[in-house]
Amino acid sequence: MNFLVGYNGTDEAKAALSLAIDFAKTFDAKIFVVTSMEGGKSEKPDEISQVETILDAAKLTLSNAGVESEAFQMARGLTPGEDLVEFAKENDIEHIFVGIEKKSRTHKLLLGSTAQFVILKAPCPVTTVK
Questions:
Q1: Which residues make Cβ contacts (< 8 Å) with residue 111, sequence separation at least 6?
Q2: Contact 127, 15 (CB under 8 A)
Q3: What does pTM read for this prediction?
Q4: Which domain holds residue 10?
C-alpha cells in the first residue's frame, strides 16, 4: 500500500504524519511525504532550505518508526492541493493524510483550503487531522 502525507512542518501536519505512521505499521504501507511550494521566481533560497529541513525531520521520524518512506519537495507551479491530488494520481496512492487548521470563514473564502480541495478532488480516501 502507498500512503501520502501532505506535510509542512506544522503541528497539524505532524499529527497527520503520526497517524499515517500508525496506519502504515498496521497495513505494511509505504509513506510518501510531500511538501508543495508553488515554484517559479518567487521561491527564495532560504525558503527552499527551510522546506528541506522540514522534510529531513519528517524522514528521520519515519526512519525511527521503521516505516518505509520517500519525501518530495514539489514546485510545479500548482497550488498545494493540486500538487497533492496530482501526486496521488501519479503514484497509485491509496490513502491521503492531511492536517487541518482552524481558519475563519473569511480566511477560507480569500485563500481557500488545501484540505478541502484534497477532500473533494482526491482519487482515494482522505483522513484529516486537527
A1: 103
A2: no
A3: 0.89
A4: 2-129
SS3 130: coil
Per-residue pLDDT of the chain (130 residues; tens, 9 = 90+): 999 999 999 999 999 999 999 999 999 999 999 999 877 666 778 888 898 999 999 999 999 999 999 999 998 888 899 999 999 999 999 999 999 877 666 555 444 588 889 999 999 999 999 8
> How far apart, in whole angstroms, are the C-alpha atoms of residue 50 and residue 48?
5
Beta carbons of 79 and 117 less than 8 angstroms apart:
yes
The CATH number linked to 37 is: 3.40.50.620
Q: Which ranges constitute the DSSP H helices of 1-130?
A: 11-27, 45-65, 80-90, 105-111, 114-121
Total domains in the fold of the chain: 1
**Contacts of 106 by beta carbon, 8 Å cutoff, 6+ apart:** none
| 72 within 8 A of 86, measured Cβ to Cβ | no
The C-alpha angle 116, 5, 88, rounded to 5 degrees, equals 75
* Separation of alpha carbons 11 and 100, rounded Å: 9
